[in-house]
Known about the structure:
- The structure is a homotetramer of 100-residue chains.
- Chain A is α+β, with helices and mostly antiparallel strands and 100 residues long.
- Chain A contains three helices and four strands.
- Chain A has helices at residues 19-31, 49-65, 87-99, and strands spanning 2-12, 35-39, 42-48, 70-80.
- A four-stranded antiparallel β-sheet of chain A has the order 2-3-1-4, covered by helices on one side.
- Chain A starts with a strand and ends with a helix.
- The A-C interface holds A 8, 10, 12-13, 15-16, 18, 69-70, 72, 74 and C 8, 10, 12-13, 15-16, 18, 69-70, 72, 74.
Amino acid sequence: MKVIADVSIVPLGVGLSLSPYVAACEAVFRRAGLKTQLHAYGTNLEGEWDAVLAAIRECHRMLHEMGVPRISTSLRLGTRVDREQTMEDRVRSVESKMKD
Amino acid sequence: MKVIADVSIVPLGVGLSLSPYVAACEAVFRRAGLKTQLHAYGTNLEGEWDAVLAAIRECHRMLHEMGVPRISTSLRLGTRVDREQTMEDRVRSVESKMKD
Amino acid sequence: MKVIADVSIVPLGVGLSLSPYVAACEAVFRRAGLKTQLHAYGTNLEGEWDAVLAAIRECHRMLHEMGVPRISTSLRLGTRVDREQTMEDRVRSVESKMKD
Amino acid sequence: MKVIADVSIVPLGVGLSLSPYVAACEAVFRRAGLKTQLHAYGTNLEGEWDAVLAAIRECHRMLHEMGVPRISTSLRLGTRVDREQTMEDRVRSVESKMKD
């Protein structure tokens, strides 16, 4: 089962600068071979359900190992069986409607 | 790794009555032996990370099998390594602060 | 426009004990006259869109005044025009399907 | 109060093609003068709290007027008082950590 996901990871108890932790998770997502696109409030991920969710678990595990005592993650998960759709398809589809 | 989660599953392409699908996923969560608490905009889940996430995947799989062509799920995932905390602890902790 | 919402407020830069801040926001929601139901990963709110969103803004404003430097809130917002529905209706509707 | 938001709007009861509705909301956000960046699972928004939230309400109102009977929106809201930060700052900050 393919999934397009969007994940925003919020580490708690390590102050206000979250970018080192977000960057560490980005590295995890890329090492996992996932398609990934960073944005200003999270990261889009595309891949097989198990691979995407294993990478998010690895991100939590690694942040805890880096000393983060608590994490609150917000995640969106989209699956569909009517047709294949990529992250790029979704953006292109909206943009084409905006030109109409 | 323990997780406290909150999941809101939105089936698309099956009209406006979502409760049969939410109920089907509730049954999945209970069969999986997870602690679960339904509320007006989702369900709290508590358990081992792998068990919780496997149950959410099973919910997507089953809804697609029931004829749902597309699903958009919103999920919160909380992990912590500083101490153990249950769903009940979290509610009680807020309520005790409200009485102060 | 009526809305049923679910809000999870995550204060950053104030350590790991979030319950005093969640309790302060609960008090804001109640003073605003909103229907509110606390759960283990957030709070259900029901009311007019403007009242609900003004209360969430007031919660952010008050937490910043209490010394919280940064906040990341996860929010779900449900509106419908096909029929009226309360928070209790939603829970009851799922529960009735589970007994079938 | 400035906010950086991320909004994913899910219209229900209108089939599986959501892009016309997402595009209509994008147009609302731009007409409102908000900084906006579309991605594969939502849209980043930046502006004053009241302007951002009024635009999201207008998006719900307009979709209902276009015939959407039910909407479930997932929203992230970030505020901070320790320093100013733009959407671009956030992406750049993570990317700079990835090069280290």
